[in-house]
Amino acid sequence: MTEATQQNPAILYVDDEPTALKYFQRAMGALAPVITAASVEEGRRLLDAYADRVAVLVSDQRMPGGYGNELLGHAWERHPHVVRILTTAYSEMEHTVEAVNQGRIHRYIQKPWDIEALRMELRQALELARLRREHAQLLREKLLVRQKQVTTARIGAVYALGATIAGQVSFLPVETYLSAALAAGLTPPEPDWLLIDHSDLTSSEAFRGAAFGLAVREHLDAMARRCPDAQPRRILGMMVETFGDSCGQLGDNGVLFHKPSELAEFLETPSGDVVSSQHAFWLAALLWLGRHGWSLRISAGEGGGVQGRLEQADEMMTPAQLAAWVERF
């Protein structure tokens, strides 16, 4: 493969006839670098290997070992940015119509080719591929911004839950919650492609957050009933009970979480996912501890886990502290 082929958008042409491959490459090489393959299997391999460079895929239909529409279907599923063109010397309208109806091909061109018409089709296909890439990049940038917005809003929601549901504005429960999420290797949520519209995403997040808040309040009320003497070690026992095998107690004043991802669920799962009752208990436990002047000091545990140890503390959160935490995600 030449250096130009590696750098510029390329056309992948697949045909089992060596003469056709040479003819196509000679006739269309001025438009873009041409990569050739002599079978469906080779075409699939080259497409997967150079998908970031292939802009247009042109495939013959009848080949030993497979049909061109099968290769185009593979490209449609794995590499949707590639513009797909089917060409054949045979009248096989059944397969062609099926591929068109399923959106698997952009154009159907019958052999023998009108070279000028083929050049025009390929110019248009290369331009379409360029526009698709630009659109995908813009959409990706938009989603990254939306991703940051979602994470920021969720961090704010955690603080708001502490202030409204738990009746406190203590910094430590929120800091502990966010420390645990970072220690768990939080992956910011990727917005659902079906919720790209801002109003839809906002609505989904609002319902999700409200349900989570209600579950946190229910757990907090249950803790108040079960721990009237305000003994923080009893909360640690309840954590082990709630998280089951994924949580173990460290002496009298600590716990070890073997599945750290369970501590970041509200912050990192998609908008359409319901937050588990177990995770709602986790935040409720931190709020209960904060209400009674206690917190968990988060640190790395054995075997990739996350551990928390009881400590007494009472500190108020400032807007600057919250903003600093937002910047860390």
UniProtKB/TrEMBL annotation:
<dbReference type="InterPro" id="IPR001789">
    <property type="entry name" value="Sig_transdc_resp-reg_receiver"/>
</dbReference>
<protein>
    <submittedName>
        <fullName>Two-component system, probable response regulator PhcQ</fullName>
    </submittedName>
</protein>
<dbReference type="Pfam" id="PF00072">
    <property type="entry name" value="Response_reg"/>
</dbReference>
<keyword id="KW-0597">Phosphoprotein</keyword>
<feature type="modified residue" description="4-aspartylphosphate">
    <location>
        <position position="60"/>
    </location>
</feature>
<dbReference type="GO" id="GO:0000160">
    <property type="term" value="P:phosphorelay signal transduction system"/>
</dbReference>
<dbReference type="InterPro" id="IPR052020">
    <property type="entry name" value="Cyclic_di-GMP/3'3'-cGAMP_PDE"/>
</dbReference>
<feature type="domain" description="Response regulatory">
    <location>
        <begin position="10"/>
        <end position="126"/>
    </location>
</feature>
<dbReference type="InterPro" id="IPR011006">
    <property type="entry name" value="CheY-like_superfamily"/>
</dbReference>
